[in-house]
Specification:
There is one protein chain. This protein is 78% helix and 0% strand. It has 19 helices and no strands. The protein is globular, with a radius of gyration of 22 Å. It starts with a helix and ends in a 7-residue tail after the last helix.
């Protein structure tokens, strides 16, 4: 089994690197490198965005949660993923695509000023590092159980392949590689469900859940309190996710971006439905999940057979690495555009592309460091979402509709919401002990602080504007 999985993994890594590098082309500017020269088709956008958002928590955690609690597991990650993409399609795609900016921080500066831009850049870079780290944690935990390698070696091996094609080809390589990975993960999940339907049943799963004292196994809204907080955290964070904004801007027209988003929403809904179905059908075969052993990994090792096992093994890795490469690439855009170019304005296109490649390695290296500290997939992903939900959601959504600068609003909202998310992160990491509620219970408090900061700051900005111009112009 180990030899077969090594062969499957080696072949997958070669094909993945080849898919990323084959479609790369010479980049002459940051727009070429990080927006694929705005040339992505709606199909490539849809498949790459779907793969980028269907990551480790989607394929591993969703299956375990479905086996443990039933159909309500769809609410945790599936619902916010689909809902967020639909929000982009119907409300934000046109505005985002029409922005004369490259990065999210560019827009922050036009609405709130340069000081707020720097704070937003730090917040976005931190988020992308944490998101990438969550996928590295998943890769390390998953590979070490099968290959017998250490967690460190497993993480490094998976990250090295991503660094290779992401550094060479930028977003175009990442999008093409993620399109290839989408078909792998979709094939694996479909094959899994076909196999389980012939060996298990919903009725048997329900009976076993009832015997175990589990209530509401087939109630979508069971446990809605906790699930809604998690879904809220993810939805708010992903609505201001630079990954989606980057892909919307990389498509030729706003109409094509909307088409790609709608297709991605449909694909995500189908994938999450299938993985939740698989999780429910796991219960009669594997029983309840245990700590540190994802059911999908147990199924591959003990109950799948060599061919389906190899396909599922690669599918899990495709889900993990497609999110990892997107996070690393978008984080690198933040560093290259919002740090390097701000320090060295007027740099040539080639110099900026080189900075983008080095930024890819910096973001990846920082994510590796975090992955060695946190080894819980859902918690790491939750801490990442908390950063954006509490720090940037309110000022981020407001800036799409603002027509005048409100620097104090952006500053106070980021300071209060982002500052609270930093304290929560340090508290959850055990670095400081402040007695703060853990994620996801911390999200409403952080959002309230961010909203209060925005409201107070808006009042300050309006008062300052009136003092500078006390007399309205005559018409």
């Amino acid at each position: 089994m180990k030899t077969g999985l090594l062969i499957a993994l080696g072949g997958y890594f070669v094909l993945l690197a080849g898919a990323g590098m084959l479609f790369s082309r010479k980049s002459r500017s940051l727009e070429d490198f990080f927006l694929a020269a705005r040339s992505l088709s709606p199909g490539v956008m849809a498949l790459s965005l779907c793969a980028a958002w269907f990551g480790a928590s989607s394929i591993l955690i969703s299956a375990d949660e479905a086996c443990r609690t039933g159909v309500s597991a769809f609410m945790i990650i599936g619902l916010p993923a689909v809902l967020t993409v639909l929000l982009f399609a119907f409300f934000f795609a046109g505005r985002i695509h029409g922005l004369p900016t490259i990065s999210l921080s560019d827009l922050v500066e036009t609405r709130y000023g340069r000081a707020v831009r720097h704070l937003a850049t730090a917040l976005i870079a931190w988020y992308m590092v944490m998101l990438a780290a969550s996928q590295m944690v998943a890769a390390g935990q998953f590979l070490k159980g099968f290959l017998g390698t250490s967690y460190l070696v497993s993480v490094a091996a998976a990250a090295a392949v991503v660094f290779l094609y992401a550094t060479i080809g930028g977003l175009l390589s990442v999008a093409r590689a993620d399109t290839f990975q989408f078909f792998l993960l979709a094939s694996g999940i479909c094959g899994l469900c076909v196999s389980l339907v012939g060996r298990s049943s919903f009725r048997e799963a329900g009976v076993l859940a009832s015997q175990a004292g589990i209530q509401g196994f087939f109630d979508f809204f069971h446990g809605a309190g906790r699930n809604a907080l998690i879904a809220l955290s993810f939805t708010l964070a992903w609505t201001v996710s630079p990954i989606a904004w980057q892909r919307i801007q990389a498509v030729r027209t706003a109409k094509q971006a909307k088409r790609g988003l709608l297709a991605s929403a449909g694909l995500l809904a189908a994938l999450y439905t299938l993985i939740v179905t698989a999780g429910i059908l796991f219960r009669p075969i594997l029983g309840a999940p245990t700590e540190g052993s994802p059911l999908l990994a147990l199924f591959i090792a003990s109950a799948s057979g060599p061919w389906l096992g190899g396909l599922l093994f690669v599918a899990v890795m495709a889900a993990i690495l497609s999110t990892l490469d997107a996070a690393v690439n978008t984080g690198a855009l933040c560093l290259a555009r919002d740090v390097y170019e701000q320090i060295f304005p007027g740099s040539s296109g080639r110099r900026l592309v080189a900075a983008g490649r080095w930024s890819t390695l910096v973001v990846g290296g920082a994510a590796l460091a975090v992955a060695f500290r946190f080894q819980d997939i859902l918690k790491t992903l939750g801490l990442a979402s908390q950063i954006m939900a509490e720090g940037l959601f309110i000022p981020g959504m407001a800036m799409l509709f603002l027509k005048k600068k409100l620097p104090a609003a952006g500053l106070l909202s980021l300071l209060l919401g982002g500052g609270f998310s930093l304290l929560s992160f340090l508290n959850d990491a055990g670095i400081v002990h402040l007695g703060l509620p853990g994620w996801p219970r911390s999200v409403p408090l952080g959002m309230a602080l961010s909203a209060a900061g925005f409201i107070i700051g808006s009042g300050i900005s309006i008062v300052r504007r009136k003092r500078r111009n006390p007399w309205p112009s005559e018409t």
